[in-house]
Design brief:
alpha+beta, Alpha-Beta Plaits, four-stranded antiparallel sheet, 6 helices, about 20% strand, protein transport, transmembrane helix
Length: about 170
C-alpha cells in the first residue's frame, strides 16, 4: 500500500550551514538576554524567601495590590496573577517574620481597598536561604551526574563522539 504517490526529496545537508548559523544566533541571543536581565531568575525553592497566595472574591487590580503592600515594607517583593484572575502570588525574597504573621500582614494591608471577607490567604510558604542554596547545589550536581551517565552509556553502547554530540544537543535544547 502506498501512502504517497511521489515521495519528496529534500537535501537537508545542503542547508546545514544556514541551520547552524541560525541555531548559533538563537543561542547567542538567549545568552545575551540572560546577561542583560541580570542572570537566571530562580524560584523561591532555589533562592529562599516567602510566598503568599491570596484568593479574592472579585479579580483585583495588581497595581492596587502593589500600592496596598507598599505600606508594610516587604522589601523586594514580586506580585503576579496565579491561575485564575482571582488569585495573586506575593513573593518576598527575605523575611525574618513567622509565616502566620506575614500572611496576616499582607491581608491586613489590603483590607482598605478590599473588604476582609473578600480576601482569603490560601497558603504561605517559606524556604530559608540555606535550604534554597542547598537545593540549588543538589540540582546542579544531579544534572552533572545525569550528563556523566549519558556519556558513559552512549560511549559504551555506541561511540564516544555520539555521546558528545548527544550532550551538545541536550545543552542546545
Amino acid at each position: 500500500m502506498e501512502i504517497f504517490k511521489r515521495v519528496p526529496e529534500f537535501d537537508f545537508m545542503e542547508k546545514k550551514n544556514i541551520a547552524t548559523a541560525l541555531s548559533c544566533a538563537v543561542i547567542l541571543i538567549g545568552i545575551i538576554s540572560i546577561m542583560i536581565h541580570g542572570g537566571l531568575k530562580y524560584g523561591i525553592d532555589f533562592e529562599g524567601g516567602t510566598l503568599v497566595q491570596l484568593k479574592f472574591k472579585n479579580p483585583p487590580i495588581i497595581e492596587e495590590v502593589r500600592d496596598g503592600l507598599r505600606s508594610i515594607d516587604l522589601g523586594d517583593s514580586t506580585i503576579q496573577e496565579f491561575g485564575s484572575k482571582n488569585h495573586i502570588l506575593v513573593r518576598v525574597e527575605r523575611s525574618e517574620e513567622k509565616l502566620e504573621e506575614i500572611g496576616t500582614k499582607v491581608k491586613n494591608s489590603l483590607i482598605e481597598k478590599y473588604q476582609a471577607e473578600n480576601i482569603v490567604v490560601e497558603r504561605v510558604e517559606m524556604v530559608g536561604p540555606k535550604v534554597g542554596k542547598d537545593l540549588r547545589e543538589k540540582a546542579i550536581l544531579s544534572i552533572v551526574y545525569a550528563i556523566i551517565g549519558i556519556v558513559i552509556y552512549i560511549s559504551w553502547r555506541f561511540e564516544f563522539q555520539y555521546a558528545i554530540a548527544a550532550i551538545i544537543a541536550l545543552i542546545h535544547d
